[in-house]
């Protein structure tokens, strides 16, 4: 988490750093400050007013009025920033309301915006200095620094003066494990590395094959072992062991790695075993990004317009379609495997492929009780007997979810596996009454 510092010694160091922007609100163009009201400003001009009494210094300060809880932006005119450079934003504030800092630099994530710093809650009419830092993720001459305000109250609302933005220098990446990045005791779940570049790595456990711009990595098992990576540049497969340099970012409540500047695949390894949880335990910060399995969970709601459906074992948990869409049957129990994710204000379980959503064993036994298969393990042919008259679809997938065999048969079929590599596979059978998956081991 980027720190908010009051009367900090960091402010003393600012003078030694390169000045990027400074404003004492002495120059006004009509009714607004001449060096503010950039194109990303959402605060209306009539909510920005000149203050000439009890200023921090000089003749004028600025009053920002935004009583609703939704924040409004008050931004600088365009300035130049450099990718990877950290900037220190210092300002003085008094009045009633919440204020925080941000940056628009046209980066690839967050619609071009950096994650905001924490709000500083101003509660009185005494001038207080606030110092926050933020790191650029793009080279641009069209950046705008942001003062974001909410819940202001009269008569003063928020009065701001003497804004100084300085270059704090290029931040070198720090080696950090996924656990280091994810573990936090902060109430909002933010990473202590938020905004900082890191060198880290893990095994790819899930890939967004629909958007093709993100994946999950995991290092080991247990709490705090997984993280979401937003990466438009590098293609990965489940099981890849990757080492990357990226920036930790808090975006709409999820800790993610963005702005990947170095990337390498060290090899292919087994995916960590999924953590056994239920719908009450899974939506916790410690499981964010971790591969989990929730067994015997009843479906309580069909997919909404965003492809999200619901399972419930005492509390609701959404199952999403980031990596794999599925249409369940309400009232049917499923074993659901996937990566835990937080998006759009809600915890979601993200299945990766067909084998991740199967009928719960107790239900599947009834629908597929006559099915036999063998030998298992097998080295050449896997013989599948349905024991029923109707036909079934079958799909054989490897540990990455890639289909290696598929078809439709009635009665008995022999699936040739002689050209497959040794390892674990999943055989999924589908009939009108449901779906069930078996683990199959190929040996030599």
State the separation between the terminal residues, measured CA to CA. 51 Å
Largest sheet: 9 strands, antiparallel
Number of beta-strand segments: 31
Instruction: Report Rg.
Output: 27 Å
CATH topology of the largest domain: Jelly Rolls
CATH architecture of the largest domain: Sandwich
Mean pLDDT level: 89
Q: What's the total helix number?
A: 3
Helix content estimate:
under 10%
CATH homologous superfamily classification of the largest domain: Galactose-binding domain-like
In short:
This protein is mainly beta. Helices cover 4% and strands 52% of the residues.
List the helices and strands and how they pair.
Elements: E1 5-6, H1 10-13, E2 19-23, E3 28-29, E4 32-33, E5 48-51, E6 61-64, E7 72-75, E8 79-81, E9 85-104, E10 120-135, E11 140-170, E12 174-175, H2 178-182, E13 197-207, E14 214-218, E15 226-230, E16 240-251, E17 254-268, E18 275-276, E19 291-301, E20 309-312, E21 316-319, E22 333-343, E23 346-350, E24 357-359, H3 361-367, E25 372-374, E26 381-385, E27 391-397, E28 403-410, E29 412-416, E30 423-431, E31 434-442
Parallel strand pairs: 12-13, 15-17, 18-19, 21-23
Antiparallel strand pairs: 1-10, 2-11, 3-4, 5-6, 6-11, 7-11, 8-11, 9-10, 9-11, 13-14, 13-16, 14-15, 16-17, 19-20, 19-22, 20-21, 22-23, 22-24, 25-26, 26-29, 27-28, 27-30, 30-31
Task: Please explain how this structure is put together.
This protein has 3 helices and 31 strands. The protein is elongated and about 90 Å long. The protein starts with a strand and ends with a strand. It has helices at 10-13, 178-182, 361-367; strands at residues 5-6, 19-23, 28-29, 32-33, 48-51, 61-64, 72-75, 79-81, 85-104, 120-135, 140-170, 174-175, 197-207, 214-218, 226-230, 240-251, 254-268, 275-276, 291-301, 309-312, 316-319, 333-343, 346-350, 357-359, 372-374, 381-385, 391-397, 403-410, 412-416, 423-431, 434-442. The strands form 6 sheets. Strands 1, 2, 5, 6, 7, 8, 9, 10 and 11 form a 9-stranded antiparallel beta sheet that branches. It folds into 4 domains: 5-170, Jelly Rolls, CATH 2.60.120; 174-268, Bacterial OB-fold (OB fold (Dihydrolipoamide Acetyltransferase, E2P), Beta Barrel), CATH 2.40.50.200; 275-361, OB fold (Dihydrolipoamide Acetyltransferase, E2P) (Beta Barrel); 368-442, Immunoglobulin-like. Helices cover 4% and strands 52% of the residues. The protein is mainly β.
């Amino acid at each position: 988490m980027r720190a908010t510092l009051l009367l900090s010694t960091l402010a003393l160091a600012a003078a030694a750093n390169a000045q990027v922007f400074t404003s004492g609100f002495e120059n006004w163009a009509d009714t607004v400050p001449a060096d503010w009201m950039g194109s990303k400003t959402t605060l209306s001009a009539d909510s920005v007013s000149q203050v000439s009494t009890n200023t921090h210094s000089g003749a004028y300060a600025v009053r920002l009025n935004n009583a609703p809880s939704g924040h409004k932006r008050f931004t600088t005119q365009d300035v130049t920033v450099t990718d990877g450079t950290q900037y220190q934003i210092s300002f003085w504030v008094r009045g009633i309301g919440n204020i925080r800092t941000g940056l628009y630099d046209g980066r690839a994530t967050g619609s071009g915006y950096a994650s905001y710093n924490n709000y500083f809650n101003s509660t009185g009419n005494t001038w207080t200095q606030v110092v926050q830092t933020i790191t650029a993720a793009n080279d641009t001459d069209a950046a705008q620094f942001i003062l974001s305000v909410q819940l202001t109250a009269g008569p003063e609302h928020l009065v701001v003066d003497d804004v100084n933005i300085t270059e704090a220098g290029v931040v070198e990446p720090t080696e950090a494990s996924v656990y280091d990045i994810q573990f936090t005791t902060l109430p909002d779940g933010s990473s202590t590395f938020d905004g900082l570049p890191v060198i880290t790595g893990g095994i790819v456990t899930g890939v967004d094959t629909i958007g093709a711009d993100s994946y999950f990595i995991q290092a080991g098992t247990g709490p705090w072992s997984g993280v979401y990576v937003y990466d438009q540049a590098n293609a990965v497969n489940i099981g890849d062991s990757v080492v990357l340099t990226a920036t930790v970012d808090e975006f709409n409540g999820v800790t993610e790695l963005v702005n990947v500047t170095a990337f390498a695949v060290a090899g292919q390894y087994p995916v960590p075993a999924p953590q056994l949880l239920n719908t009450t335990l899974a939506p916790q910060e410690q499981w964010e990004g971790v591969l989990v399995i929730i067994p015997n969970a009843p479906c309580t709601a069909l997919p909404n317009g965003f492809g999200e459906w619901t399972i419930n074992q005492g509390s609701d948990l959404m199952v999403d379609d980031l990596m794999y869409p599925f249409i369940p049957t309400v009232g049917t129990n499923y074993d659901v495997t996937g990566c835990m994710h937080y998006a759009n204000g809600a915890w979601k379980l993200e299945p990766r492929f067909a084998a991740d959503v199967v009928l719960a064993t107790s239900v599947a036994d009834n629908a597929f009780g006559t099915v036999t298969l063998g030998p298992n393990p097998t080295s050449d042919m896997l013989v599948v007997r349905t024991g029923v008259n109707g036909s079934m679809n079958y799909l054989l997938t490897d540990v990455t979810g890639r289909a290696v065999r598929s078809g439709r048969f009635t009665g008995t079929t022999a699936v040739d596996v002689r050209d497959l590599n040794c390892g674990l596979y999943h055989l999924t059978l589908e009939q009108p009454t449901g779906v069930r998956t078996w683990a199959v081991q190929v040996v030599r």
